[in-house]
Each structure stands twice: as structure tokens, then as C-alpha cells.
Design goal:
single chain, 239 residues, alpha/beta, Elongation Factor Tu (Ef-tu), domain 3, globular
Length: 239
Amino acid sequence: MKWRVATLTDKRAETSTATTLTFEVDEWPGHKPGQHVDLRLTAEDGYSAQRSYSMATPADGNKVVLTIQTVNDGEVSPYLTEMLEVGDRIELRGPIGGWFVWDASNPAPVLLLAGGSGIVPLMAMVRARVRGERRTPFRLIYSIRSSEELMYGSELRMLPGGIDVSYRYTRRAPDGYRGRVGRLTPRDLVEDGWPADFAPACFVCGPTGFVEAAADMLVADGHLPPRIKTERFGPTGTA
């Protein structure tokens, strides 16, 4: 894969700490929902820093859309979310990854488990489902600390039939929320997921602890490991 020039064409706040960036990328070959890219920033003295970010939308011409969580003491994310302006250029390469992708030709129902900013590649799958012709049943369980950290809130509320979304607030729930506050549990998967005998395609993305716990719960509930695909990220102090 070669490095390509990416020009920022749009920038908008997703939450108080997350920003969605839209780039036009020279000769972009397209990508699948769930894949990611590498970004590289190079300083005038030649020092460079490189980070990986998931794409938030399915393929659309030369467009690449990323939602990036700002890490205050990071090297790359603060520059991308706070300093980069429309018209600025960076280096990008991809698409990367062939395992953690949703194939729209697969008729199996889909179960998405998102922890925090792990929603980003799963949102690309949701958007691909919305745009596609096949009406594959989708269920998304989205675990976040509080409503202030909810990404894509308006869009998730307006999804068409056949895509069900449930939320788990681990620290503080919004007014009117009737569910339990706390971490994801096996009961959540029973109430809002797909039964194992439906043989759903399962995608889990989020911090390492969330992903490991969710995958273990899926296996304990009878889901076969080959049907469980995971994407995780560790401490983000250098993002």
C-alpha cells in the first residue's frame, strides 16, 4: 500500500471530545465496512507519527470519513481534531484489514456490540446496511459511560426498520432512561441480542477489557467463536 494525499473537506463535532473528519483521497481504491486506515503526520524537522483509525462510512468514491476521539496528551489526535482545517492535507494509506468486515451478501443476522468509540467501524456497517438493497436484520448494543459520549445519536434514532439499537450506560444515564446502569452483562445479550441458534454474525469493538468480556459472554451463550469477530484498542495515551 502506498501513502496517498488526503485533503480535509469537512469537519464537525460529534461529541465534546470526538470529531468527524471527511477527506478526499487521491485515487482511493474503495473500502469495506469495518476496515481502517493509517494516518501519518510529518513535522518540519522530519519527525513523523503514525496512527490507525477506523472508517465511519462505507465506500463512497474518493471519500474517507473518520471519527476521532481526542486524547489530551496524545501526539496525533489533538492535531487532527483541533488544529487541522478544511483544505489542509495529510498522508493516508489503506484500506487495511480483511477480517473485521461485514459482507452484505451474507444473509445471516448481524449483532454489533460497541464499547465507547468502538462504535465507529460498526457504524460503517450500519450505514452500509441502510444504503444496501438487502434488508439483513441488525441489532446494535451500544455501551457508553454517559449520554454526553453518545456518537451519531440523531442518526441512530432515525434508522429504518430492521435495525434495532439499545444502549447501556455504565456511569450516568439520561433522564427517562429505564434500564440498568452498569457494564454489559449476559442478560443484556439475551434481552437485546440474537439467540445463538440464529447463527448471527457478531462484531465486537471497543477497549480491550470490553471486547474480551463481551466475546466471552457470547461464547458462554452458545455463539460459535468463528462467528465472533473482534477489534480492540488498548490505552490511548499516545493517540
